[in-house]
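Appendix C. Worked example: Cytochrome P450
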Amino acid sequence: MEIILGQALFLLFCSILACFFTFSTTRSKRKSPGAVVTPPGPPRLPIIGNIHLVGKNPHRSFADLSKTYGPIMSLKFGSLNTVVIASPEAAREVLRTHDQILSYRSPTNSIRSLNHHKVSVVWLPSSSAHWRMLRKLSVNLLFSPQRIEATKALRLRKMKELVSFMSESSEREEAVDISRASFITTLNIISNILFSVDLGSYDSKKSSAFQDAVTGLMEAIGNPDLANYFPFLRYLDLQGNTKSIKVCTDRLFMAFRGFINAKIAERLLRNNHNEVSNIDFVDALLQFTERDEAELNTNDIEHLLLDMFGAGTDTNSSTVEWAMSELLRNPKTLAKAQAEIDRVIGQKGVVEESDILELPYLAAVVKETFRLHPAAPLLVPRKAEADVEVLGYLVPKDTQVLVNVWAIGRDPSVWENPMKFEPERFMGKDIDVKGRDYELTPFGAGRRICPGLPLAVKIVPLMLASLLYSFDWKLPNDVVSEELDMDETFGLTLHKTKPLHAVPVKKRTH
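Step 2, the predicted output written as structure tokens:
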């Protein structure tokens, strides 16, 4: 009882202190009549600001508020000033025109609890020499055209394993959890690129500690956390996020160290460290650390690997799940996509990456999925390094900036019939997801564009085409396609609240 009373008094003291700072800040702002006006926004409550307006799905709440307050809007969450962007024009200002000033990151409490923001390619300032080194290593050793081409056979092999798993389920007429199956496929692609091993298993009876740790980490990072808005709460960990994240990352780092140490031992046994023909990412990083001028240590490698798994697994698998959900909900679109695939692939028996270029309707399906269901609906939070003017409004230094790509993708002033899944809207148009068209930027743009984009645009269409080529699909338990649940849950990535389960029916023509 005394502990509870002590915490209550502490929170009361902090609340009074917050009121004082809010009052002081408000007075100081009023003394600057000549300043450029900040973006409009809803009225704020004392202490909490606009937290009460957010709800469980911030991207939806922000989209609704933007209808009233405009495409660039000010909000306050506790002590955190925030600006939300909700139009292609405003997104261009943030992601291109003022990219340098607005390329800083606003790390969450969970990221800070790991000190991940001090060594992560996702969170380090883009002006940092260490960030430039990590970014260069990621691009050159993982995502360059040469490296993407070198891992093509690996991706094809993992797609065959996915199809084989689906075939076994088809023979038993069992519904498959599409999210889980696509997650395992993506996890094994990435773990092989990084370590040359499979880390996931399709067998639901085999529990993969690594797989569970990756999933648990992403859930914990995506959980709401009041400490993001009230820094004094960081030490209390009231929602248990810091504890959950530590448990998951400890497991992952232990696994990473095991792989790294094994590779170091293997390299010591070889006279020529470069004699192996197909080196993976960790091999390449270890080669880099042997250079005299290299500024990379084991801790850097571990956190870089954490970035690769966090950014690459869940995002790709959730996109495949959303695409399959939309296709099953729109049988005519599904039939059209399958007809194109069957016409191009014929009796070959397997979809190869070279075939994807000949499937424009499938490409349109993927783009339409990115439009309606971007994996990161608010992108990664940015932070203003200095005062900057965006569309005539002042964005003060240290303000968090969120680009609501989910809202932009559903804006009726940008898209015709924005709520309908219509891949045809992209046919014959040059709009892509590579950061040049600001009405469709699921991977961001500018210097902070997701470095894994070249790999993602290989994995997603190849996995989707493989599933549609090898199988017909039906919903279990007589679920009607029009009634398929499409509710979403906000987190690190935008998930279906109820995972998609579907029954694969093997085609007799292949």
